[in-house]
Amino acid sequence: CLAAPALHIQLEAAMKKVDAVVCKSLGDGSSPEEQEAKKAVQALLDSPELKAFQAKKSKAGRWALGRTRIFMKQDPCNALRAARAKLRHSAASKIQSAQRCRSLRQAYRRLCQGFLRLQARARGARARKDLHQWRCERASIQLQAALRTLHACIKLGQSRRAAVAAQSWYRKRQCRQHYLVDRARLIQLQRWWRSLKKRRRFRNLQQNVLKLQTAWRGRQGRRQALGLKADVHWLKLVVARLVRIRRRNERRRAWKATTLAKYRDEIAGSTLQ
Length: 273
What we know:
Low-confidence stretches: 1-12, 57-61
Radius of gyration: 80 Å
Oligomer: single chain
């Protein structure tokens, strides 16, 4: 919009013409962009500042329309500019508020997700802690049961060993009594038998001495006879060897005499020839 002294017409007619020109330039308004532009122009025309200016300057205000532009004076142009700035300010405020709401919603969502993750981690940590505590309690219970079982087994072993010792002592006592009785009887029997043997030995002492003497003399005679027999055997062996040596010497002398006789005869025959 440019402020210039142009053709003066009434404001209402100018508004109608502006509306017609805007609608013609925007088309039939089928697309969403054209509808938004039409709504913005309609809001600009229905603004209270423009209406106040129309009511105030209904007689003095003038509009001028060109072929492609609208020409007006400085005051209506300033009013339109103020209305446009206000609309832009309100639109920017809405955009900013929407962007802030969007950023705040995103921050809130992130915060909620963070809280959810933190809660999940805290619950997981608590669950793991409870599980670890439960496992520790179960292990302690099992350890207590094992220790009690071990203590009971130790007590049972001690009592069993004590019972076995008592039983063995009682049985040993009875066996020892029987053993002592039998041992006393055996000792008594041995004493009687030894005394009997001693008495018999004393009674037959002379006979035993004679038996010993005869046994000793027989042993000595056998030893002497064995010695004489061995001497005779060696003498026989020596005589037989001497006989063999003498016979061998005699045969050698006879062979030597015959050999010399043959040799002498051969020599004598060779000399006669």
